[in-house]
Specification:
The structure holds 2 protein chains of 2 kinds.
Chain A lengths: L2 H23 L3 H30 L6 H41 L8 H28 L14 H28 L3 H17 L6 H22 L4 H8 L4 H8 L3
Chain B lengths: L2 H24 L5 H14 L7 H11 L13 H46 L23 H31 L3 H31 L5 H20 L4 H22 L2 H20 L4 H12 L8 E3 L23 H11 L12 H14 L3 H12 L18 E3 H17 L4 H25 L6 H29 L4
Antiparallel strand pairs in B: 1-2
The chains are: A mainly alpha, B mainly alpha.
């Protein structure tokens, strides 16, 4: 509960995401706009799922703790499904906008490709999701208090930060895979994304046992990362070329006059 | 509301492009010029606009840049193709430049909101209820019953909006009867008060919060320098970034004053009513905004620009304006802000007991009315005056044409977000939600403008989204997220 905890957890949670934003998105106005639009779509999905949960709580038995917990779990599952639905809706909207633009301009190059849109929208979802999950916790961590004084886990802040980082990156990977799957009409891949999202959320149900929830989440993160890398067109060869600075396309891109 | 301006110019430029296309087909040797025009046009299009599509016609014709008549139907299919290519290229460029200009608006709006939220969260002065109220909102909200409270807030909002309408009409009258000096004087006085007095109070409260000792002499020097440089930057000349920074700062100060002195329900009601008023004033034929624009058009002179944030320096060299001194032909909105505020910052200093009440009220009234129609109109007029033919071709100005946004928009956006962070128990989630909602509203407004090519107000969509998200997040999302955070479930 010091500045160290606050800054540490903030950077753990948002570090990779902010770095990605600064290095790849901040300079392109169109990408920033689509990022914020993605965040907006996530927000709307959250609103709808909160509405349903709220109504269900109002008509339920407020004293029964088990029922409340059950309703919460139902809320989580519903929220995940709604998020993925809104991801699909965003995909459709972007496709329409892109097609419209393409027919208007009759050029082959669109100002922004569907892959970039996938990345940017996934990151937008991730930012908003991470922010809503963790910002209040971070604000509390800057204030006075003792963690776990009543017997709860002492690693609350740290585990929240790590979980948030995983979620943000996962959203980005899910976005890439999802859009790619929709482009290629591979519905099993879409289903896999939804199922992995559900899995990650359900893993958090075990939560004071952080080993049981964080480790599998990071495993899934890694796997989704690899899948997203391959579906975005990456390969081992590309990776090697990029890391040894021999990738001509990348070098050319960096030297392109802006 | 000056967003109208931007958009209008956008539209104007597009119209001009469309006007030019037939030309290019007829006179092949001129193809180069229309292309340059279109490029500059698109960029400029995304810049500050003018009121009403009619202006573009008038402006273009007045500048003699080309046939305003859309006549000369293309004689053959080939010319049609050329036209279409140009139009598409224009569309594409419009989109690219449009995105850039949207971002040029996102950044200052975000900065202003960040300043307001940071102040609200750290300096408790602006969230304290000292029992003081503005004279425009005389009914208290700490009443016994909910019904009484609702009634009081409705009355407050009614009084406030009436004041705004009256002030706007007064300004229109003053403008109609050519009392330019009065307007200019008022505006100058108002910004003087804002830059010196409110910033002094702000600094004082910040020092109190952080328990910093400061002697009056140092404070006087700081405030004096801050104020004088601010007056120079805003009303005369100054580095662009400094001017932008000052405009953002005074918008933030104004928003903070509103957040402090408007009780909760009144504030939300006022926001809603102001958006509706903005919509009506801009779109109705008898709205004050329209009247102002038409008057200015008849006289063929620029309307006083209100406080407007501009992302580029605008040098108005060819402004036909016999009444004003030359200094008015300098940048962005600056000098012309005064005329706006002047009539409004009227007699009030003699007002009641509250220590900063008097100035506050005058400010409020002036700010209120300023949000009125004028912003877009000034912009529009100025942009018309700046039509390409009045200056050398604008190829080099692509990147430099900026966007303008009225400070009233800044103020109300920041006020919404600040109020959300001050009063919402959901704290940061609500603030974030309102922030994203406002940005998306701004984006949509600019998009609508590009589509409809007509004057549209900037407040309604953003404020509507902001209000919806505020109430929804505070009442629905907050309990859900709290429960989730309690169990550490992640969605």
């Amino acid at each position: 509960m010091t500045a160290a905890v606050f800054f540490g957890c903030t950077f753990i949670a948002f570090g990779p995401a902010i770095a990605l934003f600064l290095f790849t998105i901040a300079r392109e106005p169109l990408r920033v706009i689509f990022l914020i639009a993605g965040a907006f779509f996530w927000l709307v999905s959250l609103l709808l799922s909160s509405l349903v949960w709220f109504i269900s709580v109002q008509i339920s038995n407020k004293e029964s703790a088990a029922q409340q917990k059950g309703l919460l779990i139902f809320g989580v599952v519903l929220s995940v499904l709604l998020q993925e639905t809104f991801r699909f809706a965003y995909y459709k909207l972007l496709k329409k906008a892109n097609e419209g633009l393409l027919t208007l301009s009759q050029e082959e190059t669109m100002p922004i490709s569907i892959r970039q849109l996938a990345y940017v929208s996934g990151l937008g979802f991730g930012f908003m999701s991470g922010a809503f999950s963790v910002v209040n916790i971070l604000a509390d961590s800057a204030g006075p208090g003792t963690v776990g004084i009543h017997g709860d886990s002492q690693h609350y802040f740290l585990s929240s930060a790590f979980m948030t980082m995983a979620i943000i990156l996962l959203h980005m990977f899910w976005g890439v895979v999802f859009f790619d799957a929709c482009e290629k009409q591979r519905w099993w891949a879409v289903g896999a994304v939804v199922i992995s999202h559900l899995l990650v959320s359900c893993l958090t149900f075990q939560n004071p046992e952080y080993v049981a929830s964080l480790v599998p989440t990071y495993v899934i993160l890694f796997l989704m990362g690899v899948w997203a890398f391959y579906s975005a067109g990456g390969s081992l060869r590309n990776l090697k070329l990029c890391l040894t600075c021999k990738d001509k396309d990348l070098l050319l891109a960096n030297h392109r006059p802006r | 509301m000056a967003n109208n301006a931007e958009d209008i110019e956008n539209n104007m430029q597009n119209q001009q492009e469309a006007n030019r296309s037939p030309d290019s087909t007829q006179k092949p040797q001129e193809t180069g010029v229309p292309r340059a025009r279109s490029r500059g046009g698109s960029a400029a299009g995304a810049g500050a606009g003018t009121g009403g599509g009619g202006d573009s016609g008038g402006g273009g014709g007045g500048n003699g840049t080309g046939p305003e008549q859309n006549g000369q139907p293309p004689a053959a299919p080939t010319p049609r193709v050329v036209e279409r290519e140009e139009e598409e290229e224009d569309e594409e460029l419009t989109l690219k430049y449009g995105a850039k200009h949207v971002i040029m608006l996102f950044v200052p709006v975000t900065l202003c909101m960040v300043v307001v939220v940071a102040t609200i969260k750290s300096v408790s002065f602006y969230t304290q209820n000292d029992g003081q109220r503005l004279i425009y909102t005389p009914f208290p909200e700490d009443t016994d019953t909910v019904g009484q409270r609702a009634l009081n807030s409705i009355l407050n909002a009614t009084i406030m909006i009436t004041v705004i309408i009256v002030m706007t009409l007064v300004l229109v009258m003053l403008y109609k009867y050519r009392c330019y000096k009065v307007i200019q004087g008022w505006l100058f006085l108002s910004s003087l008060l804002l830059l010196f007095f409110f910033s002094y109070i702000y600094l004082k409260e910040v020092f109190k919060t952080y328990n910093l000792a400061m002697d009056y002499i140092t404070l006087a020097i700081i405030i004096w320098n801050f104020g004088v440089v601010g007056m120079m930057c805003i009303h005369w000349k100054g580095p662009l970034r400094l001017q932008q920074a000052y405009l953002i700062m005074i918008s933030a100060l104004m928003a903070l004053v509103f957040i402090k002195y408007l009780p909760e329900w009144t504030a939300w009601l006022i926001l809603a009513v102001i958006s509706v008023y903005d919509l009506l004033a801009v779109l109705c034929p008898k709205g004050p905004l329209r009247i102002l624009v038409e008057t200015a058009q008849e006289r063929n002179e620029p309307i006083f620009p209100a406080l407007i944030y501009s992302s580029t320096m605008v040098w108005l060299v060819n402004m036909a304006d016999t009444d004003r001194p030359n200094r008015n032909s300098t940048e962005a909105a600056s000098p012309q802000q005064e005329p706006q505020e002047a009539p409004v910052a009227s007699p009030v200093p003699s007002s009641p007991s509250q220590d900063d009440g008097g100035f506050t009220q005058s400010w409020v009234s002036q700010q209120e009315h300023r949000l009125g129609p004028l912003q877009s109109t000034e912009e529009t007029r100025r942009e018309i005056q700046q039509m390409p033919s009045a200056r050398p071709p604008v190829e080099e100005d692509d990147e430099e044409r900026g966007v303008k946004l009225g400070l009233g928009d800044f103020i109300f956006y920041s006020m919404l977000v600040g109020k959300a962070s001050a009063t919402a128990s959901g704290d940061w989630n609500t603030t974030l939600a309102c922030f994203v909602a406002i940005l998306i509203g701004l984006c949509l407004t600019l998009l609508l403008l590009a589509i409809f090519k007509k004057a549209l107000p900037a407040l309604p969509i953003s404020i509507f989204f902001g209000l919806v998200f505020y109430f929804a997040t505070d009442n629905l999302v907050r309990p859900f997220m709290d429960k989730l955070a309690l169990h550490q479930f992640y969605i």
